[in-house]
Specification:
- There is one protein chain.
- It is built from 4 helices and 6 strands.
- The chain is an alpha+beta fold.
- The strands form 2 sheets. Strands 2-3-1-6 form a 4-stranded antiparallel beta sheet, with helices on one face.
- Helix 1 (2-12) crosses helix 2 (14-21).
Length: 115
């Protein structure tokens, strides 16, 4: 019964369908709770065993230039990114428990305005 209701409901609301049935996977991942002493090299090398890393970015404080404790990685393929998420989410890295998930895309409203 609920499947028929869901099918009827999602026929009229495509955004709801994607929300309920899962969103598309991305090759960019978000890593949080990193040590503030993590280097760019350590960050990249920790995720290299899962595939070819196109880009590794540690987010830094604009004033002090120290890492803020989170970063982004971009892999060549979605499969490599998914493998890294499964392997590294909830692991200890640099003495800290880290969380790894698919990076969420930002809409134009979320972006900071540059004036």
């Amino acid at each position: 019964m609920w499947t028929a209701l869901l099918a009827r409901r999602t026929a009229y609301a495509p955004p709801l369908k994607s929300m309920l049935l899962g969103r598309g996977f991305s090759s960019e991942i978000f890593v949080s709770r990193l040590s503030y002493y993590t280097t760019d090299e350590e960050f990249r090398e920790a995720f290299l065993p899962f595939g070819n890393v196109k880009e590794a970015r540690l987010i830094r404080d604009a004033r002090t230039k120290r890492p803020k404790g989170y970063g982004f990685l971009t892999y060549e393929s979605e499969a490599e990114a998914q493998k890294a998420i499964k392997a590294m989410d909830g692991r200890i890295f640099g003495g800290r428990l880290i969380f790894v998930e698919t990076a969420k895309s930002r809409s134009k409203e979320d972006m900071p305005q540059v004036t």
